[in-house]
Amino acid sequence: MSNCCEGCSPESVKGKGSGNALERRDTFERPLSRNSPSSGAFMPPAKKSKGNLGSEGDDKENASTSSSAATSAATSAAGPRSDYLSWDDYFTSVAFLSAMRSKDPSTQVGACIVNSSNRIVGIGYNGFPAGCPDDALPWSRVGPMLETKYPYVCHAEVNAILNKCSADVRGARIYVALFPCNECAKMIIQSGIKEVVYLSDKYHDSDQCKASRKMFGMSGVKCRRHVPEKKRIVIEFPDVEKEVEEDRKRVREEGVEEEGK
């Protein structure tokens, strides 16, 4: 038996946004009244005319027009991103991220099962069965069978199926780094999964993969090779320690302000 699955680690992107605000200010000038002590004579209030740019009505109309234009421009500028991940890239990345949980020193594999509504219903990675310590069994790829990892490791596809969070995975598709071996193919078929999306078929000529293709063809499971649109995905976490320190500083400053009131 040989392990036909291996993967690598994924990463993600991030982005920023900005906005504008429109400030409106109305100015009113009150005329002196007939009874004003500072008035030497009667001063009637100024009459408003259509051409009076300082009138309240025109001021509101101009501000309303400017506000509508600004809102329209802001809406246009805040359109949807165009560099988002495709579904296939997204689920493939989830499979690769899951692979980073594997303790296997030579081969890290992840699998992601998705239903017809594009909801993730199962994730898994290769490793020893539950209850078997990672340091109690061999991880070697060569040597007598019982001294290698092959009799003991559960492949990512199997773990993803067993870890499913729905009643069943019939009609779902599974994303993996490598074309499944024959043992995983049997589990995939028996679980009702109808599509396998893989990145590499490096073991195409092995007996295990030949058997997989034969069984997939007979059972009607579709196999599709995915070529990622993005060659590299970066996951960059924020500087949490810096943010925590800034929060503490803000709390201290607010406390000082409260004491000074």
UniProtKB/TrEMBL annotation:
<dbReference type="InterPro" id="IPR015517">
    <property type="entry name" value="dCMP_deaminase-rel"/>
</dbReference>
<dbReference type="GO" id="GO:0004132">
    <property type="term" value="F:dCMP deaminase activity"/>
</dbReference>
<dbReference type="GO" id="GO:0008270">
    <property type="term" value="F:zinc ion binding"/>
</dbReference>
<dbReference type="InterPro" id="IPR002125">
    <property type="entry name" value="CMP_dCMP_dom"/>
</dbReference>
<dbReference type="InterPro" id="IPR016193">
    <property type="entry name" value="Cytidine_deaminase-like"/>
</dbReference>
<keyword id="KW-0545">Nucleotide biosynthesis</keyword>
<keyword id="KW-0378">Hydrolase</keyword>
<protein>
    <recommendedName>
        <fullName>dCMP deaminase</fullName>
        <ecNumber>3.5.4.12</ecNumber>
    </recommendedName>
</protein>
<feature type="region of interest" description="Disordered">
    <location>
        <begin position="1"/>
        <end position="74"/>
    </location>
</feature>
<feature type="compositionally biased region" description="Low complexity">
    <location>
        <begin position="63"/>
        <end position="74"/>
    </location>
</feature>
<feature type="compositionally biased region" description="Basic and acidic residues">
    <location>
        <begin position="22"/>
        <end position="32"/>
    </location>
</feature>
<dbReference type="InterPro" id="IPR035105">
    <property type="entry name" value="Deoxycytidylate_deaminase_dom"/>
</dbReference>
<dbReference type="GO" id="GO:0009165">
    <property type="term" value="P:nucleotide biosynthetic process"/>
</dbReference>
<comment type="similarity">
    <text>Belongs to the cytidine and deoxycytidylate deaminase family.</text>
</comment>
<dbReference type="InterPro" id="IPR016192">
    <property type="entry name" value="APOBEC/CMP_deaminase_Zn-bd"/>
</dbReference>
<keyword id="KW-0479">Metal-binding</keyword>
<keyword id="KW-0862">Zinc</keyword>
<dbReference type="GO" id="GO:0005737">
    <property type="term" value="C:cytoplasm"/>
</dbReference>
<dbReference type="Pfam" id="PF00383">
    <property type="entry name" value="dCMP_cyt_deam_1"/>
</dbReference>
<feature type="domain" description="CMP/dCMP-type deaminase">
    <location>
        <begin position="86"/>
        <end position="209"/>
    </location>
</feature>
